[in-house]
Amino acid sequence: MSQLSHIRLGAVLTGTLLLAGCGGLQEVWEGPGAKIFHPQAIAVLPPMASQYDSAREDIQEVLAIALRRMGHIERVMPPESVTDIFQGSKEAFDSLVFYFSRLEMTGQSDKESAITLGKALNVDSFLVVRVNSWEYIRKEGDNVGRVGLSLRLIDATTGTTVWKARHERSSSYMFFRPNLKDIAKELALEMTSYMPPQVKR
Length: 201
What we know:
Elements: E1 5-9, E2 16-20, E3 27-30, E4 41-44, H1 56-70, E5 75-76, H2 79-88, H3 90-106, H4 111-121, E6 125-139, E7 142-155, E8 160-173, H5 180-192
Parallel strand pairs: 4-5, 4-6
Antiparallel strand pairs: 1-2, 3-8, 6-7, 7-8
């Protein structure tokens, strides 16, 4: 793989880093603390509401598996444990709803609710997920299964965004539809390989 070049666009807080070259993601942004960020425990939040809500559990599962395979985060919280906490604690659930609503309105991570979420989940980081596509479509004359995600890594001790990325994967077919969850597994592994803490690829 060729060396990827980082092109900074805009200010540090609002800019987007685009990776150019072989194998890069569509969009990647790193905050100033990304290079030294080494979380010990992480949770994948339930994906934000979208038209692809039927995919939420599958996406949460494949991302947790991909994070475990990274091998350098001590504890990846099982998705069912995350769900149990939000179902069992009104404070945690209310914080999640408020966090998502502020993120939708401002595009920024709300510090106080992020810290509350981190404490409720007993983690020092969490992943915010949006499903951008989970569908079978016709694309340039081909039948295609497509999965697209946006990810945002949050430092739950400060509430700041450390890293965010957007990417998608697709698989063409003639007669037999590919399993979208299988496409999602490949996408999750690819995206998390670019996520802090960085290891040599």
